[in-house]
Amino acid sequence: MNRFSEYYDRLRRYAEDTIKSFLPESKGFQKTLIEAMNYSMLSGGKRLRPILMYESWHLFGGTDERLIAPFIAAIEMIHTYSLVHDDLPAMDNDMYRRGRKTTHVIYGAGMATLAGDGLLNLAFETALKASGHGHDDRVIEALRVLAHKAGIYGMAGGQCVDIEIENTEDVTDEEIDFVNEHKTACMIESSLMVGGILAGADSGYISRLEEAGSCLGKAFQIRDDILNVTGTEKELGKSIGSDSDEGKRNYVSLHGLEDAQKKVTELTSHAVSVFDELYRFRGIEYAFLSELAERMTRRRK
Predict the structure, then answer these.
(1) pTM (2 decimals)?
(2) Cβ of 242: how many Cβ atoms within 10 Å?
């Protein structure tokens, strides 16, 4: 196993164990709701956002895991809630995700809606468990970023425009960039920024993390759009061609596959240059985030 794989696998196991430790027990009159939430949370996935958050925290010298652990679980709860809602019949109406049936197929659209609602609320309940350990100023700022990037000026706002430009012929590059920045990149930015904030990085470096996250997130989304055309259902664990079937407009539909991949390369290169700079500043020899960024945007699934 190479250095990247060993490092990545260690962080993924840590993220998985941390997430499980904060999940509620399925009991009480609301047991079905909790089961639906846990089904959604334990469906696998890359755990990229928790890994990005942890490595950003580590990069800037984070030491107290009582601060970072609740936010690692919280960021994945927010990401998962967005996927549960995105799969609903009223949104993309997807039947499979990560190779298994989506939450609404198993539990019904109503319970899946509640599962998403429950996960979003539980995320902030969980993040607040980081308070009381001597750095509440950092926790408050991290919560501010987490809430802002997930809300109407972040992910939810991006989802709004994504819906509005469906089946629209005169979509602009500005609108596509807005969707990619807000629907996807905002939560990548949040992961990196929260890690840095909790470790005590100053505002200048938090801005650099946000910049890298923006480029990485947009590259990730465009690569996802490419794979929706070129990938296979077995590789992706979900239906392919669904964006075209639903009338989705994206960078690929506007510019074609070749230009889309060029844009992915350009955005990734910028993110990597920022990460490399930060690792040099911190005196850390292995720039894990740089290699992760390259792999994220070359992925086949």
Answers:
(1) 0.94
(2) 15
